[in-house]
Protein backbone atom coordinates (compact mmCIF):
# COMPACT_ATOMS: atom_id res chain seq x y z
CA UNK A 1 0.00 0.00 0.00
CA UNK A 2 3.08 2.27 0.16
CA UNK A 3 2.30 5.90 -0.70
CA UNK A 4 -1.26 5.26 -1.86
CA UNK A 5 -3.08 7.07 0.94
CA UNK A 6 -0.66 9.99 0.84
CA UNK A 7 -1.46 10.54 -2.83
CA UNK A 8 -5.19 10.49 -2.20
CA UNK A 9 -4.93 12.99 0.65
CA UNK A 10 -2.98 15.40 -1.54
CA UNK A 11 -6.18 15.94 -3.57
CA UNK A 12 -8.15 17.35 -0.67
CA UNK A 13 -5.93 19.58 1.42
CA UNK A 14 -8.02 22.69 2.12
CA UNK A 15 -8.49 22.29 5.84
CA UNK A 16 -10.22 24.83 8.04
CA UNK A 17 -8.15 23.54 10.93
CA UNK A 18 -4.83 24.18 9.22
CA UNK A 19 -6.06 27.63 8.19
CA UNK A 20 -6.98 28.53 11.77
CA UNK A 21 -3.75 27.67 13.61
CA UNK A 22 -0.28 29.14 13.73
CA UNK A 23 2.11 26.23 13.51
CA UNK A 24 5.55 26.62 15.04
CA UNK A 25 8.51 26.23 12.67
CA UNK A 26 9.11 22.54 11.90
CA UNK A 27 11.54 20.77 14.18
CA UNK A 28 14.78 19.43 12.68
CA UNK A 29 14.52 16.01 11.02
CA UNK A 30 16.53 13.26 12.68
CA UNK A 31 20.14 13.27 11.49
CA UNK A 32 22.57 10.58 12.52
CA UNK A 33 22.39 8.11 15.37
CA UNK A 34 20.80 8.67 18.73
CA UNK A 35 19.95 6.62 21.81
CA UNK A 36 16.67 6.80 23.69
CA UNK A 37 14.82 4.54 26.07
CA UNK A 38 11.66 4.67 23.94
CA UNK A 39 11.11 5.59 20.31
CA UNK A 40 7.54 6.60 19.47
CA UNK A 41 6.53 6.49 15.79
CA UNK A 42 3.68 8.91 15.02
CA UNK A 43 2.83 12.43 16.15
CA UNK A 44 -0.95 12.15 16.56
CA UNK A 45 -2.89 11.88 19.82
CA UNK A 46 -1.79 8.28 20.52
CA UNK A 47 1.94 8.87 20.00
CA UNK A 48 2.07 12.29 21.65
CA UNK A 49 0.04 11.18 24.64
CA UNK A 50 2.27 8.17 25.17
CA UNK A 51 5.45 10.23 24.77
CA UNK A 52 4.16 12.90 27.16
CA UNK A 53 3.16 10.35 29.78
CA UNK A 54 6.48 8.49 29.49
CA UNK A 55 8.53 11.67 29.73
CA UNK A 56 6.53 12.71 32.81
CA UNK A 57 7.57 9.35 34.31
CA UNK A 58 11.24 10.10 33.65
CA UNK A 59 11.80 8.16 30.39
CA UNK A 60 14.06 9.53 27.65
CA UNK A 61 11.77 9.56 24.60
CA UNK A 62 12.35 10.29 20.91
CA UNK A 63 9.27 10.83 18.73
CA UNK A 64 9.42 10.48 14.96
CA UNK A 65 6.73 12.07 12.82
CA UNK A 66 6.82 11.51 9.06
CA UNK A 67 5.21 14.86 8.27
CA UNK A 68 4.23 17.49 10.82
CA UNK A 69 2.67 17.03 14.27
CA UNK A 70 -1.09 16.55 13.83
CA UNK A 71 -0.79 15.88 10.10
CA UNK A 72 -2.83 12.65 10.35
CA UNK A 73 -6.35 12.06 11.63
CA UNK A 74 -5.61 13.99 14.83
CA UNK A 75 -5.43 17.24 12.89
CA UNK A 76 -8.35 16.57 10.55
CA UNK A 77 -11.17 15.06 12.54
CA UNK A 78 -14.71 16.08 13.45
CA UNK A 79 -13.53 17.34 16.84
CA UNK A 80 -16.04 15.20 18.73
CA UNK A 81 -14.57 13.95 21.99
CA UNK A 82 -16.87 11.04 22.79
CA UNK A 83 -16.92 8.36 25.48
CA UNK A 84 -17.09 4.71 24.48
CA UNK A 85 -16.28 2.82 21.31
CA UNK A 86 -19.53 3.22 19.40
CA UNK A 87 -22.34 0.72 19.86
CA UNK A 88 -20.67 -1.79 17.49
CA UNK A 89 -17.32 -1.62 19.30
CA UNK A 90 -18.94 -1.86 22.72
CA UNK A 91 -21.04 -4.81 21.56
CA UNK A 92 -17.91 -6.62 20.37
CA UNK A 93 -16.15 -6.09 23.70
CA UNK A 94 -19.21 -7.22 25.68
CA UNK A 95 -19.62 -10.36 23.56
CA UNK A 96 -15.96 -11.34 23.85
CA UNK A 97 -15.03 -10.39 27.39
CA UNK A 98 -16.29 -11.09 30.90
CA UNK A 99 -18.44 -8.33 32.40
CA UNK A 100 -15.66 -6.91 34.59
CA UNK A 101 -13.32 -6.59 31.59
CA UNK A 102 -15.99 -4.83 29.51
CA UNK A 103 -16.59 -2.54 32.49
CA UNK A 104 -12.86 -1.78 32.76
CA UNK A 105 -12.74 -0.94 29.02
CA UNK A 106 -15.73 1.37 29.38
CA UNK A 107 -14.18 3.03 32.47
CA UNK A 108 -10.97 3.64 30.52
CA UNK A 109 -12.95 5.40 27.79
CA UNK A 110 -14.66 7.64 30.38
CA UNK A 111 -11.24 8.37 31.88
CA UNK A 112 -10.10 9.31 28.37
CA UNK A 113 -12.45 12.29 28.46
CA UNK A 114 -11.20 13.31 31.92
CA UNK A 115 -7.58 12.94 30.75
CA UNK A 116 -8.25 15.19 27.77
CA UNK A 117 -9.84 17.85 29.99
CA UNK A 118 -7.01 17.58 32.54
CA UNK A 119 -4.40 18.05 29.86
CA UNK A 120 -6.19 21.06 28.43
CA UNK A 121 -6.15 22.57 31.94
CA UNK A 122 -2.66 21.45 33.01
CA UNK A 123 -0.84 22.48 29.84
CA UNK A 124 -3.02 25.53 29.13
CA UNK A 125 -4.09 24.24 25.70
CA UNK A 126 -6.42 26.74 24.07
CA UNK A 127 -8.58 24.57 21.81
CA UNK A 128 -12.19 25.81 22.07
CA UNK A 129 -13.37 22.87 24.17
CA UNK A 130 -17.15 22.72 24.77
CA UNK A 131 -19.05 20.02 26.68
CA UNK A 132 -22.23 18.44 25.32
CA UNK A 133 -22.86 15.82 22.66
CA UNK A 134 -25.96 14.36 21.04
CA UNK A 135 -26.70 11.21 19.12
CA UNK A 136 -29.76 11.72 16.91
CA UNK A 137 -32.04 9.21 15.19
CA UNK A 138 -32.64 10.41 11.61
CA UNK A 139 -35.61 8.12 10.88
CA UNK A 140 -38.42 6.49 12.86
CA UNK A 141 -36.91 3.03 12.44
CA UNK A 142 -33.69 4.26 14.09
CA UNK A 143 -35.48 5.36 17.28
CA UNK A 144 -35.89 1.94 18.84
CA UNK A 145 -32.17 1.17 18.42
CA UNK A 146 -31.27 4.48 20.04
CA UNK A 147 -33.68 3.88 22.91
CA UNK A 148 -32.22 0.39 23.53
CA UNK A 149 -28.68 1.79 23.50
CA UNK A 150 -29.56 4.56 26.00
CA UNK A 151 -31.21 2.00 28.32
CA UNK A 152 -28.18 -0.27 28.00
CA UNK A 153 -25.70 2.52 28.80
CA UNK A 154 -27.70 3.56 31.84
CA UNK A 155 -28.29 0.06 33.21
CA UNK A 156 -24.96 -1.56 32.42
CA UNK A 157 -22.56 1.34 32.94
CA UNK A 158 -24.65 3.75 34.97
CA UNK A 159 -23.81 6.36 32.33
CA UNK A 160 -26.11 9.41 32.50
CA UNK A 161 -27.52 9.73 28.97
CA UNK A 162 -30.64 11.86 28.75
CA UNK A 163 -33.46 10.84 26.38
CA UNK A 164 -34.71 13.77 24.29
CA UNK A 165 -38.09 13.54 22.54
CA UNK A 166 -38.66 15.09 19.13
CA UNK A 167 -40.57 18.05 20.59
CA UNK A 168 -37.53 18.99 22.71
CA UNK A 169 -34.85 18.60 20.04
CA UNK A 170 -35.15 22.25 19.06
CA UNK A 171 -33.31 23.15 22.29
CA UNK A 172 -30.22 21.70 20.62
CA UNK A 173 -30.67 21.57 16.83
CA UNK A 174 -32.97 23.61 14.56
CA UNK A 175 -33.70 20.75 12.17
CA UNK A 176 -36.84 18.78 11.28
CA UNK A 177 -34.80 15.82 10.14
CA UNK A 178 -34.44 14.04 13.47
CA UNK A 179 -36.97 11.98 15.38
CA UNK A 180 -35.37 11.61 18.83
CA UNK A 181 -32.01 12.03 20.53
CA UNK A 182 -29.73 11.11 23.42
CA UNK A 183 -27.85 13.90 25.21
CA UNK A 184 -24.46 13.17 26.77
CA UNK A 185 -23.28 15.90 29.16
CA UNK A 186 -19.65 14.68 29.44
CA UNK A 187 -18.64 14.18 25.83
CA UNK A 188 -18.11 17.35 23.80
CA UNK A 189 -16.02 18.92 21.09
CA UNK A 190 -12.91 20.97 20.41
CA UNK A 191 -10.57 22.21 17.69
CA UNK A 192 -8.68 18.95 17.06
CA UNK A 193 -5.53 20.42 15.55
CA UNK A 194 -5.14 23.07 18.26
CA UNK A 195 -5.46 20.29 20.82
CA UNK A 196 -2.91 18.12 19.01
CA UNK A 197 -0.39 20.95 18.63
CA UNK A 198 -0.92 21.72 22.33
CA UNK A 199 -0.02 18.12 23.18
CA UNK A 200 3.05 18.41 20.94
CA UNK A 201 4.15 21.56 22.73
CA UNK A 202 3.57 19.96 26.14
CA UNK A 203 5.57 16.88 25.09
CA UNK A 204 8.52 19.03 24.02
CA UNK A 205 8.40 20.99 27.27
CA UNK A 206 8.36 17.70 29.16
CA UNK A 207 11.63 16.75 27.44
CA UNK A 208 10.46 14.58 24.52
CA UNK A 209 12.81 14.94 21.54
CA UNK A 210 10.46 15.52 18.58
CA UNK A 211 11.65 15.03 15.00
CA UNK A 212 9.27 16.10 12.24
CA UNK A 213 9.69 15.16 8.58
CA UNK A 214 11.32 11.99 9.84
CA UNK A 215 9.52 8.93 8.50
CA UNK A 216 10.48 5.62 10.05
CA UNK A 217 10.80 3.10 7.24
CA UNK A 218 12.07 0.08 9.15
CA UNK A 219 12.27 -1.30 12.68
CA UNK A 220 15.12 -3.74 13.23
CA UNK A 221 13.99 -5.92 16.07
CA UNK A 222 17.08 -7.95 16.95
CA UNK A 223 19.58 -6.93 19.66
CA UNK A 224 17.43 -4.08 20.98
CA UNK A 225 15.27 -2.30 18.44
CA UNK A 226 16.66 0.23 15.99
CA UNK A 227 14.22 2.53 14.21
CA UNK A 228 15.55 3.77 10.88
CA UNK A 229 14.75 6.95 9.01
CA UNK A 230 16.24 8.17 5.72
CA UNK A 231 18.97 10.12 7.49
CA UNK A 232 19.22 8.66 10.94
CA UNK A 233 18.34 5.97 13.43
CA UNK A 234 17.14 5.67 17.01
CA UNK A 235 18.58 2.86 19.12
CA UNK A 236 16.22 2.17 21.96
CA UNK A 237 14.81 -0.39 24.37
CA UNK A 238 11.16 -0.12 23.40
CA UNK A 239 9.18 1.11 20.40
CA UNK A 240 5.63 2.46 20.21
CA UNK A 241 3.91 2.26 16.84
CA UNK A 242 1.22 4.93 16.65
CA UNK A 243 1.17 5.59 12.92
CA UNK A 244 -2.48 4.78 12.26
CA UNK A 245 -3.34 3.76 8.67
CA UNK A 246 -0.23 5.59 7.45
CA UNK A 247 2.28 3.33 9.15
CA UNK A 248 2.96 1.24 6.05
CA UNK A 249 3.05 4.26 3.74
CA UNK A 250 6.74 4.90 4.34
CA UNK A 251 8.08 1.38 4.10
CA UNK A 252 6.70 -2.10 4.52
CA UNK A 253 8.99 -3.24 7.30
CA UNK A 254 7.57 -1.59 10.37
CA UNK A 255 4.95 -4.10 11.47
CA UNK A 256 3.37 -6.03 8.60
CA UNK A 257 1.66 -8.35 11.11
CA UNK A 258 -0.74 -5.63 12.28
CA UNK A 259 -1.38 -3.83 8.98
CA UNK A 260 -4.33 -5.94 7.81
CA UNK A 261 -6.16 -5.59 11.13
CA UNK A 262 -7.25 -2.08 10.16
CA UNK A 263 -8.84 -0.63 7.04
CA UNK A 264 -8.67 3.01 5.90
CA UNK A 265 -12.14 4.52 5.37
CA UNK A 266 -12.36 7.97 3.80
CA UNK A 267 -14.44 10.55 5.63
CA UNK A 268 -14.75 14.17 4.56
CA UNK A 269 -15.68 17.51 6.04
CA UNK A 270 -16.76 20.95 4.90
CA UNK A 271 -16.79 24.28 6.75
CA UNK A 272 -19.21 27.05 5.84
CA UNK A 273 -18.34 30.71 5.97
CA UNK A 274 -18.82 32.19 9.47
CA UNK A 275 -22.37 33.13 10.53
CA UNK A 276 -23.16 35.97 12.85
CA UNK A 277 -23.46 34.81 16.46
CA UNK A 278 -27.24 35.13 16.54
CA UNK A 279 -27.75 32.98 13.46
CA UNK A 280 -25.33 30.34 14.75
CA UNK A 281 -27.13 30.18 18.10
CA UNK A 282 -30.48 29.82 16.34
CA UNK A 283 -29.09 26.88 14.35
CA UNK A 284 -27.58 25.01 17.30
CA UNK A 285 -28.71 26.73 20.52
CA UNK A 286 -26.78 24.52 22.97
CA UNK A 287 -23.67 24.30 20.74
CA UNK A 288 -23.49 20.53 21.17
CA UNK A 289 -21.60 18.23 18.83
CA UNK A 290 -23.91 15.89 16.92
CA UNK A 291 -23.75 12.52 15.16
CA UNK A 292 -26.66 10.59 13.78
CA UNK A 293 -27.02 6.91 14.61
CA UNK A 294 -26.68 5.56 11.11
CA UNK A 295 -23.90 3.03 10.62
CA UNK A 296 -22.31 5.44 8.14
CA UNK A 297 -22.61 8.61 10.19
CA UNK A 298 -23.16 12.29 9.46
CA UNK A 299 -21.58 14.51 12.15
CA UNK A 300 -21.63 18.25 12.70
CA UNK A 301 -21.00 21.09 15.13
CA UNK A 302 -20.32 24.81 15.30
CA UNK A 303 -16.77 26.12 15.38
CA UNK A 304 -15.74 28.83 17.83
CA UNK A 305 -15.98 31.38 14.99
CA UNK A 306 -19.54 30.25 14.16
CA UNK A 307 -18.99 28.16 11.06
CA UNK A 308 -21.00 25.01 10.56
CA UNK A 309 -18.56 22.10 10.29
CA UNK A 310 -20.26 19.11 8.65
CA UNK A 311 -18.74 15.71 8.00
CA UNK A 312 -19.84 12.47 6.46
CA UNK A 313 -18.43 9.02 5.84
CA UNK A 314 -18.75 9.29 2.11
CA UNK A 315 -16.33 7.09 0.25
CA UNK A 316 -16.43 3.39 -0.04
CA UNK A 317 -12.75 3.29 -0.90
CA UNK A 318 -9.58 5.18 -0.12
CA UNK A 319 -10.29 7.42 -3.13
CA UNK A 320 -12.06 10.73 -2.41
CA UNK A 321 -15.24 11.31 -4.46
CA UNK A 322 -14.75 13.79 -7.31
CA UNK A 323 -17.69 15.98 -6.33
CA UNK A 324 -16.86 15.92 -2.65
CA UNK A 325 -18.11 19.39 -1.70
CA UNK A 326 -21.47 19.01 -3.45
CA UNK A 327 -22.07 15.61 -1.89
CA UNK A 328 -21.34 16.68 1.68
CA UNK A 329 -23.19 19.98 1.15
CA UNK A 330 -26.25 18.04 -0.04
CA UNK A 331 -26.14 16.04 3.21
CA UNK A 332 -25.80 19.28 5.19
CA UNK A 333 -28.85 20.76 3.43
CA UNK A 334 -30.93 17.69 4.30
CA UNK A 335 -30.27 18.57 7.95
CA UNK A 336 -30.25 22.38 7.71
CA UNK A 337 -31.99 23.61 4.50
CA UNK A 338 -31.73 27.11 6.00
CA UNK A 339 -27.95 27.13 5.36
CA UNK A 340 -28.33 27.03 1.55
CA UNK A 341 -27.06 30.62 1.22
CA UNK A 342 -23.79 29.95 3.07
CA UNK A 343 -20.60 29.60 1.07
CA UNK A 344 -18.41 26.61 1.67
CA UNK A 345 -14.99 27.99 2.56
CA UNK A 346 -13.09 24.75 3.24
CA UNK A 347 -13.24 21.04 2.46
CA UNK A 348 -10.86 18.32 3.54
CA UNK A 349 -10.77 14.75 4.65
CA UNK A 350 -8.79 11.88 6.01
CA UNK A 351 -8.93 8.23 6.87
CA UNK A 352 -10.53 6.54 9.81
CA UNK A 353 -8.78 3.35 10.91
CA UNK A 354 -11.54 0.81 11.38
CA UNK A 355 -11.15 -2.68 12.77
CA UNK A 356 -13.40 -5.50 11.68
CA UNK A 357 -15.32 -5.45 14.98
CA UNK A 358 -14.92 -1.67 15.61
CA UNK A 359 -13.19 -2.16 18.97
CA UNK A 360 -9.73 -0.57 19.34
CA UNK A 361 -6.65 -2.70 18.64
CA UNK A 362 -3.90 -2.36 21.27
CA UNK A 363 -1.13 -4.85 21.72
CA UNK A 364 2.51 -5.94 21.80
CA UNK A 365 4.68 -7.59 19.20
CA UNK A 366 7.30 -9.59 21.07
CA UNK A 367 8.37 -7.90 24.28
CA UNK A 368 9.50 -4.49 23.13
CA UNK A 369 7.11 -3.27 20.41
CA UNK A 370 3.80 -1.78 21.48
CA UNK A 371 1.09 -0.52 19.16
CA UNK A 372 -2.28 1.26 19.29
CA UNK A 373 -4.55 1.52 16.27
CA UNK A 374 -8.08 0.82 15.05
CA UNK A 375 -9.92 3.56 16.93
CA UNK A 376 -12.73 3.24 14.37
CA UNK A 377 -13.77 6.89 14.39
CA UNK A 378 -13.68 7.18 18.20
CA UNK A 379 -10.04 8.12 18.70
CA UNK A 380 -10.12 11.78 19.61
CA UNK A 381 -10.26 11.02 23.27
CA UNK A 382 -9.47 7.30 23.43
CA UNK A 383 -6.25 7.41 21.36
CA UNK A 384 -4.85 9.67 24.10
CA UNK A 385 -5.94 7.18 26.72
CA UNK A 386 -4.38 4.34 24.73
CA UNK A 387 -1.07 6.24 24.79
CA UNK A 388 -1.35 6.54 28.56
CA UNK A 389 -2.10 2.81 28.93
CA UNK A 390 1.02 1.92 26.91
CA UNK A 391 3.08 4.21 29.16
CA UNK A 392 1.64 2.46 32.23
CA UNK A 393 2.52 -0.93 30.74
CA UNK A 394 6.09 0.16 29.96
CA UNK A 395 6.40 1.45 33.52
CA UNK A 396 5.59 -1.98 34.90
CA UNK A 397 1.80 -2.02 35.35
CA UNK A 398 0.15 -3.60 32.29
CA UNK A 399 -3.15 -4.44 34.01
CA UNK A 400 -5.19 -1.76 32.25
CA UNK A 401 -3.38 -2.12 28.92
CA UNK A 402 -4.11 -5.84 28.99
CA UNK A 403 -7.85 -5.22 29.26
CA UNK A 404 -7.56 -4.27 25.59
CA UNK A 405 -5.08 -6.92 24.48
CA UNK A 406 -7.76 -9.51 25.38
CA UNK A 407 -10.00 -8.30 22.56
CA UNK A 408 -9.66 -10.56 19.51
CA UNK A 409 -9.24 -8.92 16.11
CA UNK A 410 -9.46 -10.45 12.68
CA UNK A 411 -7.53 -9.46 9.60
CA UNK A 412 -9.44 -7.92 6.73
CA UNK A 413 -9.42 -10.43 3.90
CA UNK A 414 -7.20 -9.92 0.91
CA UNK A 415 -4.23 -8.07 2.44
CA UNK A 416 -3.27 -4.55 1.46
CA UNK A 417 -4.22 -4.80 -2.22
CA UNK A 418 -7.67 -6.31 -1.89
CA UNK A 419 -8.93 -4.76 1.31
CA UNK A 420 -10.55 -1.88 -0.52
CA UNK A 421 -12.91 -3.97 -2.70
CA UNK A 422 -13.93 -5.87 0.44
CA UNK A 423 -14.65 -2.55 2.11
CA UNK A 424 -16.77 -1.38 -0.82
CA UNK A 425 -19.03 -4.39 -0.34
CA UNK A 426 -19.06 -3.92 3.43
CA UNK A 427 -20.00 -0.26 3.22
CA UNK A 428 -22.82 -0.95 0.76
CA UNK A 429 -24.12 -3.50 3.21
CA UNK A 430 -24.11 -0.87 6.00
CA UNK A 431 -25.72 1.71 3.73
CA UNK A 432 -28.53 -0.72 2.91
CA UNK A 433 -29.02 -1.46 6.59
CA UNK A 434 -29.29 2.30 7.28
CA UNK A 435 -31.92 2.67 4.57
CA UNK A 436 -34.07 -0.34 5.32
C1 LIG B 1 -12.18 13.34 8.89
C2 LIG B 1 -12.10 12.58 10.19
C3 LIG B 1 -13.07 12.81 11.16
C4 LIG B 1 -12.98 12.15 12.40
N1 LIG B 1 -13.84 12.52 13.39
C5 LIG B 1 -13.67 12.04 14.65
C6 LIG B 1 -14.44 12.55 15.72
O1 LIG B 1 -15.24 13.47 15.55
N2 LIG B 1 -14.28 11.99 16.95
C7 LIG B 1 -13.36 10.98 17.18
O2 LIG B 1 -13.27 10.49 18.31
N3 LIG B 1 -12.57 10.52 16.18
C8 LIG B 1 -12.68 11.04 14.93
N4 LIG B 1 -11.85 10.63 13.92
C9 LIG B 1 -10.81 9.63 14.25
C10 LIG B 1 -9.66 10.24 15.06
O3 LIG B 1 -9.23 11.42 14.45
C11 LIG B 1 -8.51 9.23 15.15
O4 LIG B 1 -9.00 8.05 15.75
C12 LIG B 1 -7.32 9.70 15.96
O5 LIG B 1 -6.92 10.98 15.56
C13 LIG B 1 -6.18 8.70 15.79
O6 LIG B 1 -5.01 9.22 16.36
P1 LIG B 1 -3.62 8.49 16.06
O7 LIG B 1 -2.60 9.17 16.89
O8 LIG B 1 -3.82 7.03 16.24
O9 LIG B 1 -3.38 8.67 14.50
P2 LIG B 1 -3.00 9.96 13.61
O10 LIG B 1 -3.51 11.21 14.17
O11 LIG B 1 -3.37 9.64 12.22
O12 LIG B 1 -1.43 10.06 13.74
C14 LIG B 1 -0.56 9.14 13.13
C15 LIG B 1 0.69 9.91 12.74
O13 LIG B 1 1.73 8.98 12.51
C16 LIG B 1 2.51 9.46 11.45
N5 LIG B 1 3.20 8.30 10.87
C17 LIG B 1 2.63 7.23 10.28
N6 LIG B 1 3.57 6.35 9.89
C18 LIG B 1 4.76 6.89 10.24
C19 LIG B 1 6.10 6.47 10.08
N7 LIG B 1 6.39 5.32 9.47
N8 LIG B 1 7.09 7.25 10.58
C20 LIG B 1 6.80 8.42 11.22
N9 LIG B 1 5.53 8.87 11.36
C21 LIG B 1 4.53 8.12 10.88
C22 LIG B 1 1.53 10.11 10.50
O14 LIG B 1 2.16 11.06 9.67
C23 LIG B 1 0.52 10.72 11.47
O15 LIG B 1 0.80 12.08 11.73
C24 LIG B 1 -11.93 11.21 12.66
C25 LIG B 1 -10.98 10.96 11.67
C26 LIG B 1 -11.05 11.64 10.45
C27 LIG B 1 -10.00 11.39 9.43
TrEMBL record:
Pfam families: DAO
Molecular function per GO: oxidoreductase activity
This protein's UniProt keywords: Oxidoreductase
Keyword Oxidoreductase annotated: yes
Taxonomic superkingdom: Bacteria
Domain FAD dependent oxidoreductase: 38-392
Documented EC number(s): 1.4.3.-
GO cellular component labels: cytoplasm
Protein name: Gamma-Glu-putrescine oxidase, FAD/NAD(P)-binding
Species, as recorded: Cupriavidus taiwanensis
Annotated gene: puuB
Amino acid sequence: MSGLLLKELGVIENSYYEASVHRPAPSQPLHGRMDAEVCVVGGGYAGLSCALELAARGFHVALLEAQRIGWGASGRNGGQAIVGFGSEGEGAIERQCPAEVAQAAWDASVEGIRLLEQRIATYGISCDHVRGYMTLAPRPHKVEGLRRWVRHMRERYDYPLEWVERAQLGRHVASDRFVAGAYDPHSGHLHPLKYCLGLGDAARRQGVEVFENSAAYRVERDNGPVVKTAEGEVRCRQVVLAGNVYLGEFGDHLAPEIAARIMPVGTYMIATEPMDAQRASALMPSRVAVSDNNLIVDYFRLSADNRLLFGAGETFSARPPGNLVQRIRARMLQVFPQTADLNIDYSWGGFVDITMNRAPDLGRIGTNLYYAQGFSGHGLSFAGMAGKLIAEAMSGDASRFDVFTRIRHHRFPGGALFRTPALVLGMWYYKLRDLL
